[in-house]
Design goal:
By secondary structure, the protein is an alpha/beta fold. It contains 13 helices and seven strands. Helix content is 43%, strand content 7%.
């Protein structure tokens, strides 16, 4: 059995933090199981590795969003290339064929990449990593019920970038257009957004991690968990990690940190609706859902520290203050101490999530920095030197150098000349079915 936390342990070293007091009056106890969802038409899970790979291959190759997404992406690229309406209409059908052919080729590559039994295997029986399993067990979580995976997928050999470039240059050639650097930049960003969404949907990695926040307990005396994931295609489905974590009470507060422009909004709206439906059914305020997209001003602190040329003391300090305000929000859901576990995610659950998760581990747990960095690497798909996945050294520096005293402050006071926030620019034009402007 996993060791249970002692209530005689001294309070955390930063107990003067205003977001939650230390200690508890009741011993930790296991979570009460919620009824299993009943779906009479649900297919039984595949019984062997061969069947699992066959099912995954079929799901990827039969993905019904590839055709409409190819058409939507083509229109997006032609718009980025600033073609006249007449020229764009004349080229659209042929360009759509070019785009779909490239996506189909990438689709076949992807089946090979996730179906060969390696670390990126989408049928891998390995679910949560050891530290995450330990955290769940310490908090009394029933791991027979809570199914999910800690798989992060960055892609192999830069194939997603190669596919992006083949698409944008293929469209340019098909419509006889020579794009400017600015037009190419817009087309690259639009294309990458659709490919990232397809990658998430194909692989179904969840990038789940969890840590017990030392000296912190929920309203029933259970150790408080901080859970991290990526944005998940299956969040709203019965039996998914996300829905089950909410049903079992493992998570009481969800924090979406992503307010970017990639076409993930329908997934985000679906996960928010799960929380809203559960609140309505229970006539309670839980589970709460904090949505960075709902803010009138969205915090772009990561952009200030993601380029070595911009890594100045002024930018770093400004970014830390914006990040601190975001951390204080998620550690104080609705302005109150958390009632239970907190789940945070951005898009891929790697960089923004990884930095905030690492900073909280420093602040609340005083965890060794080597453990924090190892955890960061695991969740950006680091495999070895030369195969570093989404690892960014500046992310790690930000975690290490973050001024923890900002989280003790009652109020974040920005210095003169600092950016306090960045307005969300209203996207022109209409949005497609994935809410991509």
């Amino acid at each position: 059995d996993a060791p249970q936390p002692s209530h005689d342990e001294p309070p955390c070293r930063r107990c003067r933090s205003s977001w939650m007091g230390c200690g508890a009056s009741a011993p930790a106890k296991p979570l009460v199981e919620a009824p299993r969802p009943v779906t009479s038409d649900a297919a039984p899970p595949p019984s062997s590795s061969v069947e699992q790979h066959a099912a995954i291959t079929a799901r990827i190759m039969n993905n019904d969003s590839v055709v409409p997404m190819s058409a939507a992406l083509t229109r997006k690229i032609l718009k980025a290339y600033a073609l006249s309406t007449e020229a764009a209409n004349a080229a659209e059908a042929h360009c759509t064929q070019v785009v779909e052919a490239q996506i189909r080729g990438w689709q076949s590559f992807f089946v090979h990449a996730v179906g060969k039994g390696g670390p990126d295997d989408a049928a891998s029986p390995q679910e949560f990593d050891g530290p995450t399993q330990q955290a769940f067990r310490t908090a009394g979580v029933d791991l027979v019920r809570l199914k999910g995976n800690g798989r992060a997928y960055w892609g192999e050999g830069g194939e997603i970038i190669k596919t992006r470039d083949r698409i944008i240059h293929g469209v340019a050639k098909a419509c006889g257009h020579t794009p400017t650097e600015e037009q190419l930049g817009a087309a690259k960003y639009a294309t990458l957004g659709y490919l990232v969404r397809l990658m998430f949907d194909f692989h179904r990695g969840q990038n789940v991690g969890a840590v017990v926040l030392k000296g912190k307990f929920d309203t029933e005396g259970r150790p408080l968990l901080l859970v991290r994931t990526q944005c998940m295609a299956d969040a709203a489905e019965h039996g998914s990690f996300y829905r089950t974590a909410l049903e079992l009470g493992v998570v009481k507060h969800v924090c979406n940190l992503y307010a970017g422009h990639f076409p993930l909004e329908d997934w985000l709206e679906a996960e928010a609706k799960v929380c809203a439906d559960m609140r309505d059914a229970s006539s309670s305020a839980l589970p709460s859902y904090f949505d960075e997209r709902a803010r009138k001003m969205t915090r772009k602190w990561r952009r200030m520290v993601d380029d070595a040329d911009e890594w100045t003391e002024a930018n770093k300090r400004n970014a830390m203050m914006l990040c601190a305000s975001q951390i204080k929000d998620l550690l104080n859901p609705n302005g109150e101490p958390p009632k239970g576990g907190i789940l945070i995610h951005c898009a891929g659950g790697m960089h923004r999530t990884g930095m905030i998760y690492g900073i909280i581990r420093r602040y609340v747990n005083d965890d060794p920095i080597d453990e924090i960095v190892a955890d960061y690497k695991r969740h950006v798909d680091w495999k070895a030197e030369g195969a570093v996945g989404g690892y960014e050294e500046l992310n790690v520096r930000f975690i290490k150098e973050f001024d923890l005293s900002l989280l003790d402050a009652q109020e974040i006071v920005f210095e003169e000349g600092m950016t306090q926030d960045e307005p969300i620019s209203a996207a022109g034009g209409t949005r497609d079915e994935w809410r991509y402007a």
